[in-house]
Amino acid sequence: MFLRVDLHTHSDCSDGVLTPAALVERAAARQVELLALTDHDTVVGCDAARSACAVHSIRFIPGVELSCEWRGREIHIVALNVDDRDPGLQRHCAEVLARRRIRIAQIAHRLSAAGLAGDDLVRPALAAAAPTRAHVARALCASGAATTMQRAFDTWLKRGRPGFVAAQWSDLATAVKCATAAGAVAILAHPHRYQVSNGGLRELLADFKSAGGIGIEVSLSGMSPRDADRAAALARRFNLAGSIGSDFHEPDLPWRPLGRFAKLPDGVTPIMAHLGLDTGRS
Ligand code: AMP
Ligand code: MN
Ligand code: MN
Ligand code: MN
Q: 3-state secondary structure string, 81-100?
């Protein structure tokens, strides 16, 4: 069995700061034995991560975190064991990335209208395979327009602020079906982060399951014990497997380290059982 796993991580192909190879180096140094790369809406880092994992004898799981929409809310689906060459998935990601680029250009325009150097602020975003607002937030910090990522979002980027541009994602069922058609196991990411009532979360999970969803994150950095208990209860209620990860983006956030102890709550099937791994040690 694996002792230390991480099934939710980001590289600089999206809004992480490490290259896929550097991410794997760091995972190896932290004794991670099973690692998924799950960049936002792109799989372009998977080849490099796969090669680096082979060097370090880490079991690699190709993945992607798909942004989608459910009843007007943004929901994230972590797709694990995805065929990163699947034409349907490639097409889906290409469309999302094109929309992301347009959104970032609109954000540049708005920031410029607010008196900031919009084009400079979005340059790092547009250099990434998957441009995100997190890139813009980091650039806002580097330029002195914000002191922390949180403040960059709160002051400039979130709804109602000068640099806000609404996103247009595909719907939840489309994203889950796209992931599943590409051979992946679809997992509802960070259930504690959605601003949805308990009843709403149950409706979301019912829709997620009927679209083909298999798992839910039950052990993620930043989850309080109460969040984790609620996620575990949802996993049991909907018979979803439990997934584990850090949502690692950068080494400078020590409270979100790479790799977590592979312990699942009672009565929750480990998502590892759905990943086609050998039994016993890899
Ligand atoms: P986007 O997908 O372009 O809307 O960018 C969202 C990304 O920004 C997320 O994946 C997070 O990594 C990051 N993010 C969102 N909100 C915050 C926040 N309040 N503080 C720091 N990072 C955030
Ligand atoms: Mn992110
Ligand atoms: Mn997410
Ligand atoms: Mn993530």
A: CCCCCCHHHHHHHHHHHHHH
SS3 70: strand
Token readout for 59 is 């079991």
pLDDT in the model for residue 252: 83
Q: Which amino acid is located at 124 in the chain? A: P
Q: How many structural domains comprise the chain?
A: 1
Asked whether residue 175 is domain-assigned, the answer is: no
Asked if residue 135 belongs to a domain, the reply is yes
Any ligand 1 atom below 6 A from CB of 8: no
Tally of residues, the chain:
282
Q: What are the Cα distances from residue 218, in Å, to 2, 170, 267?
A: 17, 25, 12
The gap between the terminal CA atoms of the chain, to the nearest Å, is 8
282 pLDDT tier (thresholds 50, 70, 90): very low
Range of weakest confidence among 72-81, 134-143, 203-212, 247-256? 247-256
Whole-structure pTM over 0.85, yes or no?
A: yes
The residue whose CA is least distant from atom 15 of ligand 1 is: 134
Ligand 1, atom nearest to 131 Cα: 3
